[in-house]
Amino acid sequence: QSALTQPASVSGSPGQSITISCTGSSRDVGGNNYVSWYQQHPGRVPKLLIYDVSNRPSGVSSRFSGSKSGNTASLTISGLQAEDEADYYCNSFTTRNILVFGGGTKVTVL
Amino acid sequence: QGLLQESGPGLVKPSETLSLSCFVSDDSISAYFWSWIRQPPGKGLEWIGYIHHSGDTNYNPSLKSRVTLSLDTSKTQFSLRLSSVTAADTAVYYCARLDWGVGLDNWGQGTLVTVS
Which residues, at least 6 apart from B54, have a Cβ–Cβ distance to it below 8 Å? Predict the structure, then answer.
């Protein structure tokens, strides 16, 4: 099972909005709505940010939003803040009920 | 102290078997799926597998021939065995709760396992 494809890095200035893409196939991202996103600060444990494409767990800022179109899911961070500088990973179930991660995207706040 | 805590040797010799356990600190072990994920130094996350108390398991196809997950409800812990390890298996290993339909919503602190 190939990893989902994410850009290696995305950057933006404070206050701007950025979008991270996550491209898979009809066997994973395009085949269900079980797409999730995780945030990982350096040296820290990953944290669930978005589940089921666009739902936020309790306590996650509304600045984070998710969407999907076809085989590509997206995470948008609005009002970018210094604390958003981290690695972000998408994840999806496949049609065989296995999980697959994206390669990760490093977000830099300029 | 969080919900999940990994334990096991931090150093494993090549060709031997890596064994880790994850203790679940509440009584929810029968209510969820439980998963293992690893992260080689400086690299991304790789899903290893999940297990449910019903016996339902599923593994990453790239690791399936070497991985065994087990779960002990009486000890409220689940375990990972990875056989025939090489240096490429050096990673931080995380255990996590898999809430089906939600995702990996609770993670252990992770434990670094070095194969050398």
Answer: none
Residue pointed to by tokens 């206050």: A15
Query: Which residues does chain A have within 8 Å of residue B109's beta carbon, measured at their own beta carbons?
Result: 45
Q: What are the pLDDT digits (tens) for A4-17?
A: 999 999 999 999 99
B60, B101, B109 member nearest A45 (Cβ): B109
Cα A98-A100-A106 angle, rounded to 5 deg: 160
Residue-wise pLDDT tens digits, B44-101 = 999 999 999 998 999 999 999 999 999 999 999 999 999 999 999 999 999 999 998 8
The answer to whether B24 touches B3, Cβ cutoff 8 Å, is yes
Mean predicted confidence (pLDDT) in B30-47 = 96
- Is residue B112 within 8 Å of residue B10, measured between CB atoms? yes
- Per DSSP, A55 falls in state B
Closest CA to A19 of A30, A28, A8, A10: A10
Q: How many CA atoms within 13 Å lie on the side-chain side of A53?
A: 14
